Protein backbone atom coordinates (compact mmCIF):
# COMPACT_ATOMS: atom_id res chain seq x y z
CA UNK A 1 0.00 0.00 0.00
CA UNK A 2 2.67 2.49 0.98
CA UNK A 3 4.78 3.09 -2.09
CA UNK A 4 7.63 5.53 -1.93
CA UNK A 5 6.38 8.63 -3.67
CA UNK A 6 9.00 11.25 -2.92
CA UNK A 7 7.79 14.64 -1.83
CA UNK A 8 4.11 14.36 -2.66
CA UNK A 9 1.41 13.17 -0.38
CA UNK A 10 0.29 9.82 -1.71
CA UNK A 11 2.44 7.71 0.55
CA UNK A 12 0.40 7.27 3.70
CA UNK A 13 1.80 5.41 6.61
CA UNK A 14 0.23 1.94 6.91
CA UNK A 15 -0.78 1.49 10.57
CA UNK A 16 -1.22 -2.25 10.15
CA UNK A 17 2.55 -2.61 9.78
CA UNK A 18 3.28 -1.73 13.38
CA UNK A 19 1.38 -1.53 16.60
CA UNK A 20 -0.14 1.84 17.36
CA UNK A 21 2.35 2.47 20.17
CA UNK A 22 5.33 1.71 17.92
CA UNK A 23 3.95 3.92 15.21
CA UNK A 24 3.49 6.79 17.67
CA UNK A 25 7.07 6.37 18.82
CA UNK A 26 8.37 6.43 15.25
CA UNK A 27 6.29 9.48 14.37
CA UNK A 28 7.42 11.28 17.53
CA UNK A 29 11.08 10.54 16.79
CA UNK A 30 10.70 11.90 13.26
CA UNK A 31 8.86 14.93 14.59
CA UNK A 32 11.94 15.78 16.70
CA UNK A 33 13.78 16.56 13.45
CA UNK A 34 10.87 17.98 11.47
CA UNK A 35 11.77 21.63 12.14
CA UNK A 36 15.47 21.34 11.28
CA UNK A 37 14.58 19.23 8.19
CA UNK A 38 12.17 21.92 6.94
CA UNK A 39 9.31 19.43 6.90
CA UNK A 40 6.80 21.75 8.57
CA UNK A 41 4.86 24.49 6.84
CA UNK A 42 1.81 26.65 7.36
CA UNK A 43 -1.15 26.91 5.02
CA UNK A 44 -3.68 29.74 5.26
CA UNK A 45 -7.47 29.49 4.95
CA UNK A 46 -9.43 32.68 4.19
CA UNK A 47 -12.18 34.04 6.45
CA UNK A 48 -14.66 36.27 4.63
CA UNK A 49 -17.12 38.84 5.91
CA UNK A 50 -20.78 38.11 5.14
CA UNK A 51 -21.60 41.81 5.37
CA UNK A 52 -19.44 43.00 2.48
CA UNK A 53 -17.74 39.84 1.09
CA UNK A 54 -14.32 41.18 2.08
CA UNK A 55 -11.45 38.95 3.09
CA UNK A 56 -10.86 39.79 6.74
CA UNK A 57 -8.49 37.12 8.00
CA UNK A 58 -6.65 33.86 7.34
CA UNK A 59 -6.37 30.94 9.73
CA UNK A 60 -2.87 29.42 9.80
CA UNK A 61 -2.91 25.61 9.78
CA UNK A 62 0.14 23.42 10.29
CA UNK A 63 1.24 20.79 7.74
CA UNK A 64 3.88 18.08 8.13
CA UNK A 65 5.36 16.61 4.96
CA UNK A 66 7.57 13.93 6.48
CA UNK A 67 10.29 12.39 4.30
CA UNK A 68 9.81 9.16 6.23
CA UNK A 69 6.05 9.00 6.69
CA UNK A 70 4.60 11.17 3.93
CA UNK A 71 1.86 13.66 4.82
CA UNK A 72 0.80 13.22 8.42
CA UNK A 73 -2.47 15.01 9.32
CA UNK A 74 -2.45 17.51 12.26
CA UNK A 75 -5.04 15.46 14.10
CA UNK A 76 -2.44 12.69 14.21
CA UNK A 77 0.81 14.50 14.99
CA UNK A 78 -0.28 17.45 17.14
CA UNK A 79 -1.28 15.20 20.06
CA UNK A 80 2.18 13.57 19.78
CA UNK A 81 3.84 16.97 19.74
CA UNK A 82 1.88 17.86 22.87
CA UNK A 83 2.75 14.64 24.72
CA UNK A 84 6.47 15.04 23.92
CA UNK A 85 6.59 18.79 24.71
CA UNK A 86 7.77 19.34 21.12
CA UNK A 87 4.75 21.61 20.76
CA UNK A 88 6.69 24.31 22.66
CA UNK A 89 9.46 24.87 20.04
CA UNK A 90 7.10 23.99 17.18
CA UNK A 91 4.45 26.38 18.53
CA UNK A 92 7.01 29.17 18.76
CA UNK A 93 8.09 28.51 15.17
CA UNK A 94 4.42 28.60 14.04
CA UNK A 95 3.93 31.99 15.68
CA UNK A 96 7.09 33.43 14.18
CA UNK A 97 6.11 32.17 10.71
CA UNK A 98 2.64 33.69 11.10
CA UNK A 99 4.16 37.03 12.17
CA UNK A 100 6.47 36.96 9.14
CA UNK A 101 3.44 36.40 6.93
CA UNK A 102 1.76 39.40 8.59
CA UNK A 103 4.87 41.47 7.78
CA UNK A 104 4.75 40.30 4.16
CA UNK A 105 1.07 41.21 3.86
CA UNK A 106 1.67 44.63 5.41
CA UNK A 107 4.46 45.34 2.90
CA UNK A 108 2.01 44.45 0.11
CA UNK A 109 -0.45 47.00 1.51
CA UNK A 110 -2.69 44.59 3.43
CA UNK A 111 -2.05 45.76 6.97
CA UNK A 112 -5.69 45.21 7.90
CA UNK A 113 -5.66 41.43 7.35
CA UNK A 114 -5.62 39.36 10.55
CA UNK A 115 -3.84 36.01 10.93
CA UNK A 116 -5.35 33.49 13.35
CA UNK A 117 -3.00 30.94 14.93
CA UNK A 118 -4.13 27.81 16.80
CA UNK A 119 -2.76 27.40 20.32
CA UNK A 120 -2.27 24.15 22.13
CA UNK A 121 -3.24 24.09 25.84
CA UNK A 122 0.39 23.10 26.56
CA UNK A 123 1.60 26.36 25.03
CA UNK A 124 -0.74 28.48 27.10
CA UNK A 125 0.33 26.58 30.22
CA UNK A 126 4.01 27.31 29.50
CA UNK A 127 5.36 30.04 31.79
CA UNK A 128 7.32 31.69 28.99
CA UNK A 129 4.41 31.94 26.57
CA UNK A 130 3.16 35.48 27.21
CA UNK A 131 6.72 36.83 27.29
CA UNK A 132 7.52 35.04 24.04
CA UNK A 133 4.50 36.60 22.29
CA UNK A 134 5.45 40.03 23.63
CA UNK A 135 9.02 39.61 22.33
CA UNK A 136 7.78 38.44 18.95
CA UNK A 137 5.48 41.46 18.58
CA UNK A 138 8.43 43.66 19.45
CA UNK A 139 10.93 42.10 17.02
CA UNK A 140 8.50 41.86 14.09
CA UNK A 141 6.90 45.27 14.76
CA UNK A 142 3.52 44.02 13.60
CA UNK A 143 0.33 45.57 14.95
CA UNK A 144 -0.73 43.29 17.81
CA UNK A 145 -4.33 43.13 16.60
CA UNK A 146 -3.14 41.63 13.31
CA UNK A 147 -2.50 38.48 15.32
CA UNK A 148 -5.37 36.39 16.65
CA UNK A 149 -4.88 33.39 18.92
CA UNK A 150 -7.40 30.52 18.75
CA UNK A 151 -7.95 28.59 21.95
CA UNK A 152 -10.35 25.74 22.64
CA UNK A 153 -12.70 25.62 25.60
CA UNK A 154 -10.96 22.56 27.03
CA UNK A 155 -7.62 24.41 26.98
CA UNK A 156 -9.10 27.08 29.20
CA UNK A 157 -10.77 24.76 31.67
CA UNK A 158 -7.62 22.84 32.68
CA UNK A 159 -6.35 25.65 34.92
CA UNK A 160 -9.18 28.14 34.85
CA UNK A 161 -7.75 30.99 36.95
CA UNK A 162 -4.30 30.77 35.44
CA UNK A 163 -5.57 30.53 31.85
CA UNK A 164 -7.90 33.42 32.46
CA UNK A 165 -5.13 35.66 33.79
CA UNK A 166 -2.90 34.74 30.82
CA UNK A 167 -5.68 35.60 28.39
CA UNK A 168 -6.02 38.99 30.05
CA UNK A 169 -2.25 39.54 29.69
CA UNK A 170 -2.43 38.62 26.00
CA UNK A 171 -5.41 40.90 25.54
CA UNK A 172 -3.45 43.72 27.22
CA UNK A 173 -0.70 43.19 24.63
CA UNK A 174 -3.37 43.99 22.04
CA UNK A 175 -3.62 40.47 20.60
CA UNK A 176 -7.08 39.24 19.46
CA UNK A 177 -8.47 36.09 21.04
CA UNK A 178 -10.88 33.54 19.57
CA UNK A 179 -12.63 30.53 21.09
CA UNK A 180 -12.23 27.63 18.63
CA UNK A 181 -14.56 24.65 18.07
CA UNK A 182 -17.24 26.42 20.08
CA UNK A 183 -20.06 24.17 21.20
CA UNK A 184 -18.01 20.96 21.40
CA UNK A 185 -16.48 21.65 24.85
CA UNK A 186 -17.92 22.22 28.25
CA UNK A 187 -17.63 25.94 28.94
CA UNK A 188 -20.61 27.31 30.78
CA UNK A 189 -22.04 30.70 30.05
CA UNK A 190 -20.44 31.88 33.30
CA UNK A 191 -16.96 30.96 32.07
CA UNK A 192 -17.55 32.62 28.77
CA UNK A 193 -18.17 35.95 30.50
CA UNK A 194 -14.78 35.67 32.24
CA UNK A 195 -12.71 35.12 29.10
CA UNK A 196 -11.67 38.28 27.23
CA UNK A 197 -12.47 36.61 23.92
CA UNK A 198 -13.50 38.68 20.91
CA UNK A 199 -14.48 35.91 18.51
CA UNK A 200 -16.44 32.65 18.74
CA UNK A 201 -15.85 30.01 16.10
CA UNK A 202 -18.86 27.73 15.72
CA UNK A 203 -17.62 24.20 15.14
CA UNK A 204 -18.01 22.57 11.73
CA UNK A 205 -20.02 19.70 13.21
CA UNK A 206 -22.96 22.13 13.72
CA UNK A 207 -22.52 23.83 10.36
CA UNK A 208 -22.64 20.36 8.73
CA UNK A 209 -26.29 19.98 9.82
CA UNK A 210 -27.45 23.13 8.04
CA UNK A 211 -30.01 23.13 6.59
CA UNK A 212 -31.52 20.73 9.07
CA UNK A 213 -31.49 19.80 12.70
CA UNK A 214 -28.93 22.38 13.86
CA UNK A 215 -30.58 25.45 12.27
CA UNK A 216 -32.07 26.63 15.55
CA UNK A 217 -28.94 25.88 17.56
CA UNK A 218 -26.65 27.78 15.20
CA UNK A 219 -29.08 30.71 15.03
CA UNK A 220 -29.16 30.81 18.87
CA UNK A 221 -25.36 30.60 19.18
CA UNK A 222 -24.98 33.54 16.80
CA UNK A 223 -27.53 35.65 18.70
CA UNK A 224 -25.94 34.67 22.01
CA UNK A 225 -22.43 35.63 20.85
CA UNK A 226 -23.65 38.91 19.45
CA UNK A 227 -25.46 39.75 22.69
CA UNK A 228 -22.02 39.49 24.33
CA UNK A 229 -20.64 41.77 21.57
CA UNK A 230 -18.53 38.96 20.15
CA UNK A 231 -17.84 38.24 16.48
CA UNK A 232 -18.92 34.88 15.12
CA UNK A 233 -17.04 32.76 12.59
CA UNK A 234 -18.77 29.74 11.05
CA UNK A 235 -16.23 26.96 10.39
CA UNK A 236 -16.39 24.40 7.60
CA UNK A 237 -18.86 26.09 5.24
CA UNK A 238 -19.09 23.87 2.16
CA UNK A 239 -22.44 24.65 0.50
CA UNK A 240 -24.47 27.60 -0.76
CA UNK A 241 -27.47 26.73 1.47
CA UNK A 242 -25.27 26.99 4.56
CA UNK A 243 -24.04 30.37 3.42
CA UNK A 244 -27.60 31.61 2.75
CA UNK A 245 -28.74 30.49 6.20
CA UNK A 246 -25.74 32.04 8.00
CA UNK A 247 -26.32 35.31 6.16
CA UNK A 248 -29.92 35.46 7.37
CA UNK A 249 -28.75 34.73 10.95
CA UNK A 250 -26.32 37.65 10.78
CA UNK A 251 -23.15 35.58 11.15
CA UNK A 252 -20.09 37.83 10.82
CA UNK A 253 -17.45 35.66 9.15
CA UNK A 254 -17.35 32.40 7.21
CA UNK A 255 -14.52 29.96 6.55
CA UNK A 256 -14.63 26.73 4.58
CA UNK A 257 -14.02 24.79 1.39
CA UNK A 258 -16.93 26.65 -0.27
CA UNK A 259 -14.55 29.61 -0.54
CA UNK A 260 -11.14 28.03 -0.33
CA UNK A 261 -9.05 25.21 1.05
CA UNK A 262 -6.12 26.26 3.23
CA UNK A 263 -3.48 27.67 0.83
CA UNK A 264 0.34 27.86 0.78
CA UNK A 265 1.67 31.43 1.30
CA UNK A 266 2.00 32.31 -2.41
CA UNK A 267 -1.48 31.09 -3.27
CA UNK A 268 -2.95 32.83 -0.25
CA UNK A 269 -1.50 36.12 -1.51
CA UNK A 270 -2.87 35.47 -5.02
CA UNK A 271 -6.29 34.70 -3.53
CA UNK A 272 -6.16 37.91 -1.49
CA UNK A 273 -5.14 40.02 -4.50
CA UNK A 274 -7.82 38.50 -6.75
CA UNK A 275 -10.39 39.02 -4.04
CA UNK A 276 -9.43 42.66 -3.45
CA UNK A 277 -9.55 43.44 -7.18
CA UNK A 278 -12.94 41.86 -7.51
CA UNK A 279 -14.24 43.87 -4.56
CA UNK A 280 -12.99 47.17 -5.89
CA UNK A 281 -14.55 46.39 -9.31
CA UNK A 282 -17.86 45.59 -7.61
CA UNK A 283 -17.68 48.92 -5.79
CA UNK A 284 -17.57 50.85 -9.04
CA UNK A 285 -20.38 48.94 -10.73
P1 LIG B 1 -9.30 23.71 13.69
O1 LIG B 1 -8.44 24.76 14.27
O2 LIG B 1 -10.73 23.68 14.11
O3 LIG B 1 -9.16 23.92 12.11
C1 LIG B 1 -10.19 23.68 11.20
C2 LIG B 1 -9.97 22.42 10.43
O4 LIG B 1 -11.06 22.22 9.53
C3 LIG B 1 -8.71 22.40 9.56
O5 LIG B 1 -8.26 21.05 9.51
C4 LIG B 1 -9.27 22.83 8.21
O6 LIG B 1 -8.44 22.44 7.13
C5 LIG B 1 -10.57 22.08 8.20
N1 LIG B 1 -11.57 22.71 7.33
C6 LIG B 1 -11.77 24.01 7.07
N2 LIG B 1 -12.82 24.19 6.24
C7 LIG B 1 -13.31 22.97 5.96
C8 LIG B 1 -14.42 22.49 5.16
O7 LIG B 1 -15.15 23.24 4.54
N3 LIG B 1 -14.60 21.13 5.14
C9 LIG B 1 -13.80 20.27 5.84
N4 LIG B 1 -14.06 18.96 5.75
N5 LIG B 1 -12.77 20.68 6.60
C10 LIG B 1 -12.53 22.02 6.66
P2 LIG B 1 -6.74 20.66 9.73
O8 LIG B 1 -5.84 21.65 9.03
O9 LIG B 1 -6.59 19.23 9.41
O10 LIG B 1 -6.51 20.87 11.29
C11 LIG B 1 -7.19 20.08 12.21
C12 LIG B 1 -6.97 20.59 13.61
O11 LIG B 1 -5.58 20.47 13.99
C13 LIG B 1 -7.29 22.06 13.79
O12 LIG B 1 -8.67 22.24 13.98
C14 LIG B 1 -6.50 22.39 15.03
O13 LIG B 1 -7.17 21.97 16.19
C15 LIG B 1 -5.27 21.52 14.84
N6 LIG B 1 -4.21 22.36 14.26
C16 LIG B 1 -3.95 22.68 12.97
N7 LIG B 1 -2.89 23.49 12.86
C17 LIG B 1 -2.46 23.72 14.12
C18 LIG B 1 -1.40 24.52 14.69
O14 LIG B 1 -0.66 25.25 13.99
N8 LIG B 1 -1.25 24.48 16.05
C19 LIG B 1 -2.07 23.74 16.85
N9 LIG B 1 -1.87 23.75 18.18
N10 LIG B 1 -3.10 23.02 16.36
C20 LIG B 1 -3.29 23.00 15.02
MG1 LIG C 1 -8.66 26.72 14.61
MG1 LIG D 1 -12.13 24.81 14.82
MG1 LIG E 1 -11.57 21.52 14.86
UniProtKB/TrEMBL annotation:
The keyword Cell membrane applies. It is found in: Cell membrane. It comes from the Bacteria. The keyword Transmembrane helix applies. Its main location: membrane. One of its GO terms (cellular component) is plasma membrane. Keywords: Cell membrane, Coiled coil, Membrane, Transmembrane, Transmembrane helix. Residues 24-276 form the EAL domain. This is Diguanylate cyclase/phosphodiesterase (GGDEF & EAL domains) with PAS/PAC sensor(S). The chain holds residues 745 to 1029 of 1029 of the full protein.
Amino acid sequence: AAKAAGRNCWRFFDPAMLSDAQEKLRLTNSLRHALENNELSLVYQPQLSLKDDRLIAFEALLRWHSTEHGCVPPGRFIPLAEQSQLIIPIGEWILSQACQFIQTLSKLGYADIRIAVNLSPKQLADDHFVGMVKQLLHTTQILPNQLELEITESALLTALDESCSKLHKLKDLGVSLALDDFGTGYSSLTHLRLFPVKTLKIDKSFIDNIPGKDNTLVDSLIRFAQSLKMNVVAEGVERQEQLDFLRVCGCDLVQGYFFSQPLPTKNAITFLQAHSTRNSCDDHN
